[in-house]
């Protein structure tokens, strides 16, 4: 279906790019059905309506079924997705183009660019004429009403195309094209004064003054004979100017005043087409010409055979994960998306419409899901670039969510070796955060005001060269101000016209609004409340109009150059026009429109929230912002979620709604935890628990208590005993509510906390309870949470047999769930059985595998932990240099990270290695800050690791007493004991080490696992640290 175009001009036909033509559409009725759907464009046409159009009042016995059969025939020929809908309404898919729409877009472009770039405008106009001047629309079809309407619309469009082309070509210094277009329009309608003026201008520009005067005389006689009137004042004024030989110079054809910037963009494209792509940021203030500059590049790329993908970012879509890129890829067929995405097709299935039939593959961890989606989109775009050079053009990126900015960062790196150029257009002020975030990977092209020379050329081209200095002074070279001022001058007539240069752009816009009339004004002011896009159906609902009437008014506004036609809607010609209209709409009317808009846009919670807030409906705004934030969290757009949830909190607080306050605090806390903003997250969790308790919502209070004792609590330095108290309080509520999944999660985390306090007897009991709760919940994720807790207890006790059994069940389960978060730990801890058997190679391989999983998932702190243990292994084997190098690498990975457990433990491992290598001063320099950092957290294992080594290095009696107290507090389950001095059994040179737990086993030697003391030594490095688990990096 990709690239299909229905041709209505001439005989009906369907074209697609490539060497293989489409087979013909069999049957007169099927062809007529296609013609009806094409004439109606995207409007659904009911089967009952189609019956009347297809059979002219003489339907078959079962006409609705026959219509369905004809639709099936079209789908078989054009593609299954070419015709959408069912018997309630059929329509062509948006990806199917219609030649009349293509022509209308070209005419709009010709009109829009006639002042700023007349050469490009004239090219667009000629292409529109070529499309429209091929013959009669639907040649061979009977002259019935719907066919007559289509033909009349095409004739009007052809007339407009000829007018616009003539004007643009004259401005571009191409009088031949201008004369041909105007003459053709005048032949079609000898009373067409605009065509006559265009012909006179072209002849005058070519130096044929006599022919221009003859054209005027012919028009004057025709008007007198047919209508008994004289030519209009504008035509008479032009006649007088020709008589006076008042010729203006032909303007240049280059994009005025932007030669340097356009050259920079073309250079970037040239490099991209050669295989060295990248990201270019086009920045400047609103209305300065950024979009026009990018469009000029896009037109040249498309003309050269490139694939151009375009999209625009809207403020109301920040919670829609990566929506601009989704829009840009909307035309890529599903089979191509599946092929290009490869193993990431499942990650994109919930995002791209073409992958609806692919099973969705989502991940619970936001960072991992974002990474997979970004990787999938990069694969698709780079894959498309492998077929033909690709330009991805994103406009208004200052409105984009942070997830889109993150994707641009990824694409900038991936495009470096691809035929892919990404051009992001954004306002410099509003887009400052995006510009800063992308500065290290992008090339920046800044647009400033036009210089006086460029303003003079534009003024000359518009016929107002004598006022160029005045215009430059009043507008200060702002492109939009200059163009709008020239247009205001150009449309003024006689003594009643507007003053040449308005005081501000607002005056220019409002003057054009007045000329458009009150009906247009009503639609435009309602549209300005909705945003930059004016959807006629939404505006119609807002104003209680018929959709066709709203569409008619939108087209009138487009004729007045206040709107431009987009794919399925209209848009304001620029943001500033929309802003002026919004600001000048009376407050009560704005409020009414906002309230109605909130009622209409229930499927877009962020938009509902903004409209409700603008209307002063704070409770509704709070609920909608919360829904938008929760949706952003589910889509892993975490940073955007934090912003939206902040708005929800503000609105809920002002509305005094406790339940909403609690929910918003809990949701924002989780977003902040995912962003490693642990202290901020704890503030939110505390507020959520407090507010939920006041609101009487026990389930919400339970989940807030779990988070109050969770990752963020440990990372921010909360005492472990306090964390456990909070989680146990949550467990009591879970048990009372019968919430088994929550119960498994809470028990699993209590297991981790018990291990952190060296309470291994409690840890085993809690882990076994967590597994039972997980199995009772009949949920794979609940079972995984329970098994993970039990694994933690067995791993740090050195219970190799039970640990192996848990690992054998847990690792396949996590791989099936595709949970890299827990999988990284499971793979890491699967090294322990190999260590217990002194199989260094197998143990090292498993730790390396864990590092690979952590790296793939973006878990920097996990990677640091695993690398630190690779260094520990090297130390046990006597490789001192390798142990130090790996330890320093692990510490480097923690730089800039805040985690009260994790960071000091990694530093302690390096300090211990340095101490054993004889570098006492280096060890103290590392261990001192680590011990201080771990103080006060109540996580005995994390305090013990640096403290014991520091006591050995310094001989401090105080440190030694504290370490001894911590060791004395250890509890082990029946059959296990805490052994002191068991480190003598480790391999390789080095000092004896203290404080190693080991399970007693007289059979250890017979099992080939070495001397019990060696087994103890292998476990020792594990027991003094806990199951510091899954710290979000």
CATH architecture of the domain at 827-1023: Alpha Horseshoe
Q: What's the helix count?
A: 49
Give the N-to-C terminal Cα separation: 44 Å
Structural class: alpha/beta
Which stretches are poorly predicted, pLDDT < 50 over at least 5 residues?
Answer: 246-253, 493-503, 979-1033
Number of strands: 15
What gross morphology would you assign? elongated
How would you briefly describe this protein structure?
This is Bacterial transcriptional activator domain-containing protein. The protein is an alpha/beta fold and 1033 residues long.
What this model shows, in words?
The protein has 1033 residues and is an alpha/beta fold. Strands 7-8-9-6-10 form a five-stranded parallel beta sheet, sandwiched between helices. Helix 8 packs antiparallel against helix 9 (209-226), helix 24 packs across helix 27 and helix 43 (860-876) packs parallel to helix 45 (902-916). It is elongated and about 115 Å long. Residues 246-253, 493-503 and 979-1033 have low confidence and may be disordered.
């Amino acid at each position: 279906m990709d690239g299909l175009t229905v041709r209505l001009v001439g005989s009906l036909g369907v074209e697609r790019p490539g060497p293989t033509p489409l087979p013909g559409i069999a049957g007169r009725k099927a062809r007529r059905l296609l013609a009806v759907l094409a004439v109606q464009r995207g409007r659904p046409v009911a089967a009952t309506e189609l019956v009347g159009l297809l059979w002219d009042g003489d339907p078959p016995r079962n006409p609705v079924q026959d219509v369905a059969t004809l639709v099936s025939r079209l789908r078989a020929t054009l593609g299954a997705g070419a015709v959408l809908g069912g018997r309630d309404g059929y329509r062509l898919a948006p990806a199917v183009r219609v030649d009349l729409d293509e022509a209308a877009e070209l005419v709009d472009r010709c009109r829009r660019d006639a002042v700023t770039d007349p050469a490009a405008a004239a090219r667009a106009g000629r292409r529109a004429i070529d499309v429209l001047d091929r013959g009669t629309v639907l040649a061979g079809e009977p002259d019935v009403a719907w066919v007559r309407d289509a033909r009349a619309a095409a004739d009007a469009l052809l007339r407009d195309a000829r007018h616009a082309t003539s004007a643009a070509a004259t401005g571009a210094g191409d009088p031949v094209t201008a004369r041909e277009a105007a003459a053709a329009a005048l032949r079609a309608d000898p009373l067409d004064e605009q065509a006559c003026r265009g012909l006179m201008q072209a002849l005058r520009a070519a130096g044929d003054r006599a022919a221009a005067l003859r054209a005027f005389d012919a028009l004057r006689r025709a008007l007198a004979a047919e209508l008994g009137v004289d030519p209009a004042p504008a035509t008479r004024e032009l006649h007088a100017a020709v008589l006076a030989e008042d010729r203006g110079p032909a303007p240049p054809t280059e994009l005025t005043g932007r030669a340097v910037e356009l050259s920079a963009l073309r250079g970037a494209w040239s490099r991209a087409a050669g295989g060295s792509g990248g990201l270019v940021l086009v920045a400047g203030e609103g209305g300065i010409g950024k979009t026009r500059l990018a469009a000029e590049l896009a037109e040249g790329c498309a003309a050269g055979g490139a694939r151009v993908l375009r999209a625009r970012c809207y403020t109301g879509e920040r919670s829609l994960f990566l929506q601009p890129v989704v829009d840009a890829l909307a035309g890529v067929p599903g089979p191509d998306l599946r092929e290009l995405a490869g193993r990431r097709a499942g990650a994109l299935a919930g995002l791209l419409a073409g992958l609806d039939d692919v099973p969705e593959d989502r991940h619970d961890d936001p960072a991992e899901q974002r990474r997979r989606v970004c990787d999938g989109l990069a694969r698709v775009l780079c894959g498309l670039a492998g077929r033909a050079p690709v330009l991805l053009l994103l406009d208004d990126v200052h409105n984009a969510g942070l997830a889109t900015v993150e994707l641009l960062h990824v694409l900038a790196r991936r495009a470096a070796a691809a035929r892919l150029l990404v051009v992001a257009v954004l306002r410099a002020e509003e887009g400052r955060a995006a510009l800063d975030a992308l500065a290290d990977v992008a090339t920046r092209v800044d647009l400033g005001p036009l210089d006086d020379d460029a303003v003079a050329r534009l003024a000359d081209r518009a016929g107002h060269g004598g006022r160029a200095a005045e215009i430059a002074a009043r507008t200060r070279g702002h492109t939009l101000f200059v163009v709008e001022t020239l247009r205001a001058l150009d449309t003024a007539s006689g003594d009643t016209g507007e003053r040449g240069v308005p005081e501000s752009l607002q005056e220019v816009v409002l003057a054009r609004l007045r000329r458009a009339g009150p009906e247009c004004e009503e639609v435009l002011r309602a549209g300005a409340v909705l945003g930059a896009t004016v959807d006629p159906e939404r505006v119609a609902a807002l104003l209680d109009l018929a959709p066709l009437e709203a569409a008619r008014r939108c087209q009138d506004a487009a004729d007045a150059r206040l709107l431009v036609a987009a794919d399925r809607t209209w848009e304001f010609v620029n943001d500033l026009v929309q802003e002026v209209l919004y600001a000048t709409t009376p407050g009560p009317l704005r409020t009414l429109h906002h309230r109605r808009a909130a009622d209409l846009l229930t499927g877009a919670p962020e938009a509902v929230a903004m409209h409700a807030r603008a209307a002063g409906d704070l409770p509704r705004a709070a609920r909608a912002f919360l829904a938008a934030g929760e949706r952003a969290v589910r889509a892993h757009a975490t940073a955007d979620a934090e912003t939206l949830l902040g708005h929800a909190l503000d609105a809920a607080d002002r509305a005094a709604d406790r339940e909403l306050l609690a929910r918003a605090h809990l949701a924002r806390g989780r977003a902040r935890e995912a962003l490693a903003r642990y202290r901020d997250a704890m503030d939110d969790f505390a507020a959520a628990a407090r507010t939920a308790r006041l609101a009487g919502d026990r389930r919400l209070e339970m989940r807030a208590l779990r988070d109050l004792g969770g990752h963020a609590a440990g990372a921010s330095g909360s005492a472990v005993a306090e964390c456990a108290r909070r989680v146990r309080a949550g467990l009591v509520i879970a048990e009372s509510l019968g919430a088994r999944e929550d119960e498994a999660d809470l028990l699993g985390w209590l297991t981790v906390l018990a291990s952190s306090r060296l309470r291994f007897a409690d840890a085993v009991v809690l882990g076994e309870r967590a597994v039972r709760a997980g199995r009772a919940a009949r949920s794979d994720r609940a079972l995984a949470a329970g098994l993970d807790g039990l694994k933690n207890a067995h791993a740090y006790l050195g219970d190799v047999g039970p640990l192996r059994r848990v690992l054998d069940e847990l690792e396949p389960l996590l791989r099936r769930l595709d949970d890299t978060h827990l999988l990284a730990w499971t793979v890491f801890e699967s090294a322990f059985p190999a260590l217990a058997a002194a199989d260094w190679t197998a143990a090292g391989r498993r730790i390396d595998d864990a590092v690979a999983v952590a790296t793939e998932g973006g878990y920097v702190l996990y990677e640091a932990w695993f690398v630190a243990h690779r260094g520990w292994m090297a130390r046990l084997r006597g490789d001192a240099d390798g142990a130090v190098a790996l330890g320093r690498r692990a510490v480097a990975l923690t730089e800039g990270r805040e985690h009260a457990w994790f960071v000091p433990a990694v530093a302690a491992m390096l300090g211990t290695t340095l101490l054993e290598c004889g570098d006492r001063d280096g060890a103290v320099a590392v261990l001192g800050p680590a011990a201080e950092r771990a103080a006060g957290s109540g996580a005995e294992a994390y305090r013990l690791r640096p403290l014991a080594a520091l006591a050995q290095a310094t001989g401090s009696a105080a440190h030694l007493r504290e370490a001894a107290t911590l060791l004395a507090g250890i509890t082990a389950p029946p059959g296990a004991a805490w052994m002191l001095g068991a480190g003598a059994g480790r391999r390789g040179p080095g000092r004896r080490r203290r404080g190693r737990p080991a399970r007693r086993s007289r059979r250890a030697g017979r099992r080939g696992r070495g001397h019990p003391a060696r087994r103890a030594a292998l476990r020792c490095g594990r027991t003094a640290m806990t199951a510091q688990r899954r710290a979000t990096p």
